[in-house]
Write a structure and sequence with these properties.
By secondary structure, this protein is of the alpha+beta class. The chain is built from 2 helices and 7 strands. The longest helix has 15 residues. This is PH domain-containing protein.
Length: 119
């Protein structure tokens, strides 16, 4: 098992107003985001390409919203900001796509520019 790109413990994970755990864990490893309870039981997981994470403008630092498999979770990262989580997801997505920092459209445009013109 590979070293995790991001790991946060003591995370409060809630689904709307229902608290699922007050001391959970968020891990980004092997191209997947995993939400765990304080006992290590998996709440939800998905490939990083299918996960959306945002930091609401109205929330305090260290809070994030994550959409995993179509379900929104409110995350309160204890003692950390959500910037580390967002950066880890971007890095994992870049590694999964094959080229660091380039989207699929950017790759196609670069290939077109590099190809010799016929005629």
């Amino acid at each position: 098992m590979a070293e995790p790109e991001f790991s946060a413990t003591g995370v409060r994970i809630a689904r709307w107003l229902r608290s699922l755990t007050r001391a959970g864990q968020v891990v980004v490893r092997d191209g997947r985001l995993v939400l765990l309870t304080s006992y290590g039981r998996e709440i939800d997981s998905a490939p990083v390409e299918q996960v959306r994470v945002s930091e609401p403008w109205y929330a305090a630092r260290g809070r994030a919203l994550a959409a995993v498999n179509g379900t929104w979770y409110a995350l309160r990262l204890k003692g950390q900001t959500s910037d580390g989580l967002v950066a880890a997801l971007r890095g994992a997505r870049a590694r999964a796509s094959g080229a660091p920092g380039r989207s699929g459209a950017a790759k196609v445009a670069a290939k077109r520019r590099a190809a010799p013109a016929d005629g």
